[in-house]
Predict the structure.
Amino acid sequence: MKLYIGNKNYSPWAMRPWVLMRQAGIPFEEVLVRMDSFGSGSSFKQTLASVSSAGKVPALVDGELVVWDSLAIAEYLADRHPELALWPRERAARAWARSACAELHSGFSALRGACGMNLEAQLPEVGAIVWRDRPDVRADVERLVELWRRLLERSGGPLLFGDFSIADAFFAPTVLRLRTYALPLPKDLEPFAQRLAQLPAVQQWVREALAERDFLPFMEPYRARPRGEP
C-alpha cells in the first residue's frame, strides 16, 4: 500500500491515516507530495491528479484501488484489518467512536480556520488574539473539552476508548494545534493530551515534520519567516 501525504508540518488530514497505520503496525510506503501551492497548475495538484480525481491528500493506493479522504481510509483499513480492532470492539463504544470522528471531520471549522496546523511554530501570541476575539473558536474548544471528558469518563482512559483506536489518530492533530497556539485546556484533560502527543507514531510524525524545514509562506500569512531566522 502507498499513502500519499503533504508536508508533515501543515497536513492534519494526512496525519490521521499516517499515525493510524504507523501506530497499528500496518505496513505502507509513504509518498510525500510537497505543497508548492493548491492552484490547478501546481506540481502538488498535477502529481495528485495522476493518483486520485479528488486531487487532495491523503490518498491510499492499495493495488488498483484508490481510497481518498481520511475517514474513508480509516474505514477501509478497519475492514481490511479486523484483527487489529481499529474501532472499539464493543458496539456502543464503536458507535461513539464513529460519531466523534464524524463530528471532527465535518465540524470544528472555526478552530481549524483560525489555527492551522503548524508543528514547527510556537504561536501563543496568535492564539491569545484568537481566544480573545473569536467566540466561535472558544465554542469549538469547549465542545472538544466536553467530548473528550465524556469519552474518557466512559472508557476510563488512558486514551479515548481505552486502547488506541481510529479516534485517537483523528484527534492527535487537534491536540497539537492546541499546543502550537497555547489554547487553554483544563488540567484534568492534560494527562490525556500528553499521552496522545507521546504516542510513538505521533512523535515520529512531529520529528519528521520538524526535519522538513520547508517554510511555505502561503500557508502562514501570520509569519514572514520560520522560527530561528533573523
